[in-house]
């Protein structure tokens, strides 16, 4: 498995969002960028906080996904509730895993926080057990911090 250059990926994310104020357009392109850049992933996208304590499916690349996830449920909900990046080597061993795609075996979820509010999560799935390293989680968290700087006032 190749090592991902997260500095370059972050630079590319900045370039494709520069000057574009529309959040959904930017999240769509970022999900496509990351999906194409990482090997061995089967889902990359966003869940957005659209109701209190509820994440709603946003822009993504991959198979059909769950529509709504409560804060605290599954890996995405855990990231939203704890406000911490979740790196799960085997989602089937995660007590409250929500199986949107039975082919997914490992996951990284980065909470997105703007003005001290969880506005969503950045979610990545892989069909391989232990696909995501600590370096992946750190690099994806840095991309998450950039995503928080986009225009969320829509």
UniProtKB/TrEMBL annotation:
**Per the database record, which ranges form the GAF domain?**
27-149
Q: Which domain of life is it from?
A: Bacteria
Q: Name one GO cellular component term.
A: cytosol
GO MF term list:
L-methionine-(R)-S-oxide reductase activity
Please report a single Pfam family linked to this protein: GAF
InterPro entries associated with the record: FRMsr_CS, GAF, GAF-like_dom_sf, Phosphatase_reg/MetRdx
Task: Family membership, please give it.
Answer: Belongs to the free Met sulfoxide reductase family.
Q: Which PANTHER family match?
A: FREE METHIONINE-R-SULFOXIDE REDUCTASE (PTHR21021:SF15), GAF/PUTATIVE CYTOSKELETAL PROTEIN (PTHR21021)
Q: What name does the UniProt record give this protein?
A: GAF domain-containing protein
């Amino acid at each position: 498995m190749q090592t991902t250059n997260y500095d370059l990926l972050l630079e590319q994310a900045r370039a494709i969002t520069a000057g574009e104020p529309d959040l959904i357009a930017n999240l769509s392109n970022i999900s496509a960028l990351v999906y194409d850049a990482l090997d061995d992933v089967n889902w990359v996208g966003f869940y957005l906080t659209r109701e209190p304590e509820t994440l709603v499916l946003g822009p993504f690349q991959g198979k059909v996904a769950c529509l709504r996830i409560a804060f605290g449920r599954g890996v995405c909900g855990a990231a939203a509730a704890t406000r911490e990046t979740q790196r799960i080597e085997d989602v089937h061993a995660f007590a409250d895993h929500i199986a949107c795609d039975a082919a997914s075996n490992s996951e990284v979820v980065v909470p997105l926080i703007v003005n001290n509010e969880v506005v969503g999560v950045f979610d990545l799935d892989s069909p391989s057990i232990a696909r995501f390293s600590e370096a992946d989680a750190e690099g994806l968290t840095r991309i998450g911090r950039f995503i928080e700087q986009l225009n969320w006032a829509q």
